Amino acid sequence: MMNRIFLSCLLLSLYSTGSSLSCRWLDHKFRQYNQRSSDLLDMMVNNSTNTTEDAELEVAFPHDLYTQASKASAGEHLGFIVQSLEQMALLFEEAHNSTSWQEKTVEDFVNVVSRQADGLRSCESLRNIGSHNHKNKKLRMYFKRLSGHIERMDHSAEVWELIRKEIKVHLFRLNQLASSLLTKN
After folding, report:
1. CA distance to 82, 114, 184, per residue, from 25 (Å)
2. Which of 49, 53, 83, 109 could cross-link to 40 by cystine, CB 3.0-4.6 Å?
3. Where do runs of H (alpha helix) occur along the chain?
4. Which of 146, 156, 47, 42 minimizes the C-alpha distance to 98?
5. Chain center to CA of 152
């Protein structure tokens, strides 16, 4: 009888630990990689553009997606962050040949953002939460419109500078979303 109680308590504690949102990678590495990707974006500043402070992208981000993600389950929350990072990496892969940014800096940015997504994916797989089968269509369409806007603007330095600024804001917001997962524990 005592063995059954002990075994039940052990299983319950293992289940509780396994279902926790605690993820070593999220706790220790996400912010570090997020800061690195932000620093790389800062290094990409193109001082030769004539971008005015008032210039804005013609493609507006659907900000309600952040609100939805913050209210979603932990898996959907992580899935949104992962999908956003993946889309950023894809967008900046286009930048290799079409900007005056140093190719190494762009490659490093793509690699860091991809590593962030991979790290978060490991958090998801450990807890079987979130599914990449349920990608956010609105988010995917936003990045597709951004890509189209870049094409229409002939990959100009001005449009890439606007994109760089926009992505920097998204990185900040994704960091906030990831931090909110940690505070929910």
Report:
1. 13, 14, 16
2. 109
3. 2-19, 24-28, 30-43, 64-71, 74-93, 103-127, 137-152, 157-183
4. 156
5. 25
Hunting for tokens 């932990």 — which residue is that? Answer: 74
* Contact of 75 with 123, CB cutoff 8 Å: no
Q: If DSSP codes are grouped into helix, strand and coil, which group holds residue 166? A: helix
* pLDDT, tens digit (0-9, with 9 covering 90-100), for 17-67: 333 455 778 888 998 999 999 999 999 886 544 544 556 667 778 888 889
Query: Which residue matches tokens 């804001």?
Result: 169
Which DSSP symbol is given to 49? S
CA nearest to 36, candidates 119, 97, 94: 119
Residue of 87, 139, 146, 85 whose CA lies nearest to 112: 85
